[in-house]
Amino acid sequence: MHQSMWTYAWDILDLGFDTVLGELRDRAGLNCISLASSYHAGRFLQPRSPKRKAYFPEDGTIYFHPTPGRWEGLAIQPKLAKVIHEGGDVLRELVRRRDAGSLEVSCWTVCLHNTRLGMLHPGAVTRNVFGDPNYYSLCPSNPDARAYVCALVEDLTHSYKPGLVELESPSFMGFAHEFHHEKDGVGLTAEDDFALSLCFCDSCLARASKAGVDAEAARRTVAQWIVEACEREAPNPRFPDFPAGRIETFRPFPAVYEYLLWRSEPVTSLIAEIKARAHPSSRVVLIDFAEGWLGGCDLTEIGKICDGALLCIYGLSPEGSAAIIKKGRAALGPEKFLGAGFRLFNGEVGGADGLRDRINACIESGANGLNFYNYGLIPAPRLDWIRSAVGAPTPSQVLKRQLAPHDDIARR
Asked: Model-level pTM?
């Protein structure tokens, strides 16, 4: 079974390849490392690093050396992270070690979530009903954004040949984003946030119109909802069953309903193109959450054109985790990869026993892969939770088992 941990290149450079790979294999009992190959900005507490306790990565950079010829003529170009330029090609070394018998390598690849590129290319970002740009989110309908993401995965897989590529954010992002000092004095409801996340950029309008969808009628209705939300004295949900009712919630509003049904098309077709251009030795899967439809992800359709999905079940109970995985397996079918993603933050999984309960529930419900978040963000003792939960033998137990037959012979 695929068992991996999401990891940043800067943690490997701070702690060293031997330490990181040794801990993932021997302490956590894992067989793969999921390296962030493209990533966004943030501020990260660094409990493991011997060099720093807080880190601000560059925004919207890649963590592998691009091949210039694969990017020739594209409007949107990648930027190599300074930490890789100065510290060396981490991914290349991981692949070299994999080929020599170390851990398998997966590439955790952030696709359209990129504020740096959004600011440089405002014509390629998502825009709400009023035309306001979401600079942190390139649009899956935009031709330049699509070309960028496809080239990203094509270059990555043909140059490095990871066993797996995990696609994060090849879809539409929400309005609430944890952007710098976000302010909301209105008290937006979940449905308000969703309405503000709907993209009506020129690319979406043109693509929807070509599909026979009246996007302008949908835009007018959604705009009115947002205006009303901004004028009310206190939050008052229009749709009490949102988001549980999913797209069916909007059936009484035909134009909006049709637009939401169409909205999965640019996401599915983008993933299909990514898969078609990836090296055939690299499997391509989607990273998603339980309510992926909010971002335009139709897991059933996506499962038909890529190799599966990795569903993040952060903060859920064993029963809640099992329910998500069962739905995922039903959508993907029995043959596709289906991973369960766990976040080992304080209070989320209930220690080793709680993690074990969640893992067992997911495996029994159809998961055939496990991912854990995140190597550099958690204290080292939590790696022991993983080994205890997945049941991997410790190195001493392996040695004891190897010696056991010889001990039997000696006793005879």
From this structure: 0.94
What is the spatial distance between Cα 226 and Cα 228, in angstroms, rounded to a whole number? 5
As a whole number of angstroms, the distance between CA 194 and CA 232 comes to 18
Checking if the pLDDT of 135 tops 60, the result is yes
- 318-347 tens-digit pLDDT: 999 999 999 999 999 999 999 999 999 999
| Dist CA 93 CA 41 (whole Å) | 24
State how far the Cα of 214 lies from the Cα of 257, in Å rounded to an integer: 10
**Letter string b/e over residues 100-139, b meaning 16 or more CB atoms within 10 A of that residue's CB:** eebbbbbbbbbbbbbbbbbeebeebbbbbbeeebbbbbbb
DSSP-derived pairing of the beta strands 308-312 and 283-289: parallel
Three-state SS at 7: strand
Q: What is the mean pLDDT of the chain?
A: 94
Residues of the chain with CATH 3.20.20.80: 2-172+263-411
CATH of domain 2-172+263-411: 3.20.20.80
